[in-house]
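pipeline/complex-builder :: batch 7 item 3
reading input block
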Amino acid sequence: MKVKKLTALLLAGTMAVSLAACGNPEVANDTPAAETSGTEEAASGEEAASGVETAKAEAPAEKQDVSLRMWGAEEDQAMLQEMIDSFEENYKDYANFDIQLGVESESTAKDTVLTDIEAAADVYALASDQLIDLVKAGALQSIDEMDGALQAYAGKSIADIKSANAEGAVGAATYDGKLYAFPMSADNGYFLFYDANVLSEEDVASWDSLLAKAGEAGKKVGMTLASGWYNASFFYGAGFTTDLNEDGTTSIDFNKSADCTGVQVVQAMLDIASNSAFAAVPDGDISNQIASGGLCAAISGTWDATAAQDAFGDGYAATKLPTFTAGDKQIQQGSVAGYKLVAVNAYSQNAGWAALLADWITNEENQAIRFEKREIGPSNNNVAASDAVAANVAIAALAEQSAYGVVQNVGGNYWDPAATFGEMIAQGQIARDDEAAIQEALDTMVEGITAPVQ
Amino acid sequence: MKKRYVNMVLRHLLLAVLAFVWLIPIAWLLVTSFSSYTGINTSTFFPQEWSLQNYKNLLFSADSVAQFPNWFKNTFIVACCSCVISSAFVLMVAYATSCMRFKMRKPLMNMAVIMNLFPGFLSMIAVYFILRTLNLTNNHWGLVLVYSASSGLGYLIAKGFLDTVPVSLREAAYLDGASEAKIFWSVVLPMSQPIIVYTVISSFLAPWMDFIFAKMILNAGVSSQWTVAIGLFNMLDRSLINTYFTQFCAGGVLVSIPISVLFVIMQKFYVEGVTGGSVKG
Amino acid sequence: MGKAKGQAGSFPGAAGGFFKEFGTSLAKGDIFVKLSLIWMGAGYCRRKQFVKSILITLFEIAVIVFTFGFAMDYVPKFGTLGTVQQESVFNMMTMKNEFNDYDHSFMILLFSLASFVVWAIFAVVYLYNIINSYKLQKMEEEGKHIKTFREDLISFFNEKFHITLLALPVSGVVIFTLVPLLVLILVAFTNYDQQHMPPSALFTWVGFRNFRDLFSSGGLTVTFGYAFVRVLAWTLVWAVFATFTTYIGGILLSILINDKKTKFPRMWRTLFIITIAVPQFVSLLLVRNFFANSGIVNTFCANIGLTGWLRDMGLIGTSYIPFLSAPGWAHVMIILINIWVGVPYQMLIATGVLMNIPTEQLESARIDGATPRQIFWKITMPYMLFITGPALVTDFVKNINNFNVIYLLTANVFVTTNQAMANSQAKEVDLLVTWLYTLTQDYYNYKMASTIGIVVFIICAVFTLISFNRFIKGDREEAYR
């Protein structure tokens, strides 16, 4: 608090200066030309933005010292360091950078950040499902406010960024109409890996044929049921929905009916889980199971592409998820579309440059590099449309599945009841034909998920 | 005579079985660390292919995930410092509460009992902010403080031990005109070897074991600053476990070596210290 | 319990005496004693204890500087825990965010408390200082020798040696345990949760609302009462089993190893000690993979047909033995694994203690013709209990709060199939502390975690008060000297 002590006077002063700058740039004599022009452009609003090449800011007479800290995934460190180097090189005329790179997995960023937001890195990568909690805790810098800085230094506007990336990815980075992060990748979802030596393309179209063929071959099909991230895919496919309310509670309709009844979905899941060719894999264990060689097909994401490639050899193939039989209908299994984003800390000492760095590591060139080096599925439309990306088996399958993917908006109370429900199905603790019991289990789950947040 | 012989055999057989049970997981750790397959081996006890690669990677080719030499060094320094401080604190408190009588003794001891009852990590966040105010986060001194500053609370075992040191020894020293400090230093301490060993060992171990506090305090994400515990724990992250599980095992083995050596050496003192001619009352 | 009451009664008495002494000192003291009210060094200065005078004056100045330079930034806001919400404006010119002078509720809470502690210490020193000054005055009047600074220093290695010994450890405990604990207690009376998380939001006092929520109908979650009772029951069962199995196991093992008839005692000891040398998180995570649903033990059991047999018997409904993934199985396994982890430690302690058993007692018992069993129950065990009794109680409390074993063995592996438990984010194998950890780490529900923490404390306190006063009665301290 002490460190950030700043008087209202200074704040008022800043407002005055920027107001003045809007009307009459010359008034702010002592400000460097570059920044003034930036402000001017910001003020001139949206129309100057998309598509049109905006003038880059000129180099200031005196360079700022900017120190930033960035967090990225363990496996990305070397690549991120190169991106930082190219960032420093690109902006070397404007400031002296001192950028420190640290390790923080995208899946745990929220926990670390929320412990002490002020000590968290200026720029960090996160999985899109963490965005809402972070926004609510006031941890994220609104990127909309950075429009001016981006136009002045990176020569693009927020609208450019939005149009350059996949709609779903932008949606996942937006809360309440404001953009809170830069889309980095669009591959945080799951689909079906299979061994083409065992299964044909027709076999993998439906669960029934998939399990039958796998059973014949004496192999298993692996999927994680004890996780609300995976098991909701059956419900989403049948048109059920979840939503996050303003007060942090979750709305869910799994116990009602959509394209079919919730009970029918559960029965379909029970049919699959009780098949001897099905292996219910504990959450997080799927890579290990693929690698151990007992599976001929598995539901997982791009992060397991290497494991699947090693296990299936020349039979390595991937496609969208199969359909399942609910009642008398074949229903396409849905999925959760997840993205990875790069956010700027709201408490960053150098929020402007932090935003530029976040933009830099998620821009078109760097998304291309990311794909090239780590086979990470890009959210950038141009990169996604490139031949190399289209030729990637896993990413192509993900793209195919994305037509059935939904963004999973749920609150904290969702996960435990949903995981328990999946585990009950995996262990066959609900009788398939006892519809009343299934309905009761669904109701109990929904009751837990929709419980008020204390 | 024969019964005695059978008894003898049974006794050693029992010990052997127990030792076998106790050592199986350790043996698995050891053999897995020599496996050339990097994931978790679930089908056979012994690896299919043996290799030294895990140790080589861990020791000589540090990448951003595995910086074992750095971690080892950090942990060793932290462990040594906190071991010295904790042992000193524990013995000081134990001597004051066991061998001296003063007004605040009982209230202080009761306070200590009460404080031991609270689940420690609940107050972790407060400890973290105290350290941050002192500018000691992401700093190994901060860690040393966390591990050792409150160690005085763990004085009970040492006090229990000092309670058995005969009063007559100290009284003789008083009569010779020795000061309290001198009695503490040259009468009671030399007799307390077993408990010193116990204290030293347990406080030396803490930094090798703890990953919750360490992760909270070293939160800048700079992996070269980490302790062994955070680093190894991180290797079991879902995205890393299949590439690093055997290195994790190798790391576990490497950590155990110095600690085992410490134990084996200390064990000698342990026995000698106790049997080495101290007067029993 | 009667003992505890006696102590509780004597403490206010002592404090009352202290204040009375202060009153008389002030009333009867000369001008320098009275001057000490403002300038703490006055009394000492008059009695020519100049070094002491300077030191105490420096202390006084330090506290004043602390008060106005630091404490006053926070303490006045203690009543509200802050009112100024964080706001920021991005400044294009500096490329920085500019913040208002916002309040950080947690810092206000923490530093106010720290200030109270400092002031409490100051108050005691301040009062004591007056009393001391008056004592010096009397000594001077009676013509007694007043200690020089050197003599004062020497006394800190003699009759006041306990102060020297305790100063550092106690201040460490105050800063790193006491203050955080008080913060924790106070948080239970605020609304510090995900909706009110500093620095972006403020939290404030809510009185006893959290305790009411905890026990009123509905409670924290829809099935809170249900989950709380079960978690509490398992916590107690676990603590009892974990404590006594390792304790007794350790003693038996150490007796077995240290017996004269056992060959190579050091070798055996070393073998068991090796398991301690592997850090707990390594060995526990390893064991967890060892017993995983698709782990090596399960592969082995399936190969020898044990899994199939158990399934035929109807004992398991899965294609694997759920060692660590089904209640019942997991409960037993956790206790067994804890024996594996804990017995070598206890063996080490027991060895140390057993070697100190007064040999005369053993000898005379043997001469009297006592059997080994009698010796064990009549001499060894009472002695062990006397020495390690307090440790046994602390072990029990530690086990109630034993986070590592449960967390490392079951986190992310154990998925409950009990929906009522799941609706409260609890699992059958959760202890109160691991449940707390989930509530704080995954749900940021600090207020409820603190509230439950206090409940855990009360449970521990009741248990400890009953048993502790039995083990550390003052009169027993001298028994074995």
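note: Chain C touches chain B through 108 residues (CB under 8 Å).
queue -> next item
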